[in-house]
Amino acid sequence: MSGAQLPTTGRETTGTHNGTWPGSAISSGVLAPGSITDADMVQLLDEHGARHHDAMFSSYVDALDADTLRGFYRDMATVRRFDAEATALQRQGELALWVPVVGQEAAQIGSGRATAKADYIFPTYREHGVALTRGLDLADLLKLFRGVSNGGWDPRETNFHLYTLVLAAQTLHAVGYAMGIQRDLAADSATEPAAVVAYFGDGASSEGDVHESMVFASSYKAPVVFFCQNNYWAISVPFEVQSKIPLANRAAGYGFPGIRVDGNDVLAVYAVTQWALDHARSGNGPVLIEASTYRLGAHTTADDPTKYRLQAEEEAWRGKDPLVRFEAYLRAEGLADDAFFEQVKNDGDELAAHVRKATLAMNSADIRQKFATVYAQAHPLVAEELAWFNSYEASFGDGQDGETAESTTQGGAA
């Protein structure tokens, strides 16, 4: 990229992890059980905003210009403002549910910005930041949570798949898609090399789908990057119940590289994901990235995290806030000033107003339409359930739309 290079001033210090492990681990592709420890976590920017040098990964960010760096911050701040607006919309009854992302912005913006246009993304239901990097109108994400659509956007336009609400199912889809890319390349040399990124959380890592996906990906050297956002809580289940060692170690059992990265460091996430995607696109097979981050808010707006975790823990992680960290870096290096941050705030407010207006303009969800599309043809069980629903709704005695009698007779016909 053109422009000024990333500053490497006296603030830059030596990284905390052993500088020899990434090269040896990645070149062999096989790690001894438990060989990746907390000390091996890749970090380029510490929680105070000071740069660290990493012999393997610093080169991926050293040439980034000032505009790109400011763009990282803008994206993180934008998705945080969007998240706050979506949460407010749910609390005001405009959305049925919302899945907050606050605290995980660096993991998503860093990895999303590392992808190429030809790469294909399989998200879970929380990848709002990745959606932003792929060019989606964030208001479209809310169609699903308002109940007016099963998706909300055309994945073919951005190579960003529809949200997957079934835990870990997207990892299977991702490997299948990656194997398709692999075969397209073999059949047509003009096909642009591409890779797939499969996002999932630490809770989903305990699902059998993830194991099966990694078996297939390794066996066929599929060009897929497994990106685990380890936010340390699978709803109310703490990470230590999911795994006794860092999740990145699991890659060794399948015979491909595993890397652990500070998920609150947008620069490190960007660098590690760039490397992993290059590795996958080059025909070397899959990579597992474990991004160590934290869900600062609730799992969803139906959750109350005060019931299962301590405030002290949350406060400790707030000190590692990815936005605060990156703002400190930009200011210290003279890459951004008060005017920039004020403009980012104003732009975020404009986006929030757009999202609110677009959401309120969406048609209200029609649950009868959902009954009508369960099966391709009328089904007696669906007709029975619809009749019960109509009877239940009519029991409230007002607010009826006059469609109950007709809908009952449809019996779930498409």
Describe the protein in words.
With 414 residues, the chain is of the alpha/beta class. It has 2 domains: 13-358, Rossmann fold (3-Layer(aba) Sandwich), CATH 3.40.50; 367-410, no CATH class. The protein has helices at 21-28, 59-62, 66-91, 105-114, 128-133, 138-146, 155-158, 169-187, 208-219, 239-242, 250-254, 266-284, 311-318, 322-332, 338-361, 367-372, 380-394, 404-410, and strands at 13-14, 52-53, 120-122, 196-201, 224-230, 233-234, 237-238, 258-262, 287-292. Strands 3-4-5-9-8 form a 5-stranded parallel sheet, sandwiched between helices. Helix 3 (66-91) crosses helix 4, helix 4 packs parallel to helix 12 and helix 6 (138-146) packs parallel to helix 15. The radius of gyration is 23 Å and the shape is globular. Mean pLDDT is 89; it is low at 1-33 and 400-414.
Secondary-structure blueprint of this entry?
Blueprint: E1 13-14, H1 21-28, E2 52-53, H2 59-62, H3 66-91, H4 105-114, E3 120-122, H5 128-133, H6 138-146, H7 155-158, H8 169-187, E4 196-201, H9 208-219, E5 224-230, E6 233-234, E7 237-238, H10 239-242, H11 250-254, E8 258-262, H12 266-284, E9 287-292, H13 311-318, H14 322-332, H15 338-361, H16 367-372, H17 380-394, H18 404-410
Parallel strand pairs: 1-2, 3-4, 4-5, 5-9, 8-9
Antiparallel strand pairs: 6-7
Helix pairs in contact: 3-4, 3-14, 3-15, 4-12, 6-15, 8-9, 17-18
Report, as a whole number of angstroms, the end-to-end distance.
52 Å
- Helix-strand makeup class: alpha/beta
Overall spatial form:
globular
CATH class of the largest domain: Alpha Beta
Name given to the CATH homologous superfamily of the largest domain:
Thiamin diphosphate (ThDP)-binding fold, Pyr/PP domains
CATH topology of the largest domain: Rossmann fold
* N to C succession of SSEs: EHEHHHEHHHHEHEEEHHEHEHHHHHH
Number of domains: 2
In the CATH classification, which architecture of the largest domain applies? 3-Layer(aba) Sandwich
Trace the largest sheet across and list its strands.
Answer: 3-4-5-9-8
- The oligomeric state of the chains shown is single chain
How much of the sequence is in beta strands? 5-15%
Indicate the radius of gyration in whole angstroms. Answer: 23 Å
Residue-averaged pLDDT: 89
Largest sheet: 5 strands, parallel
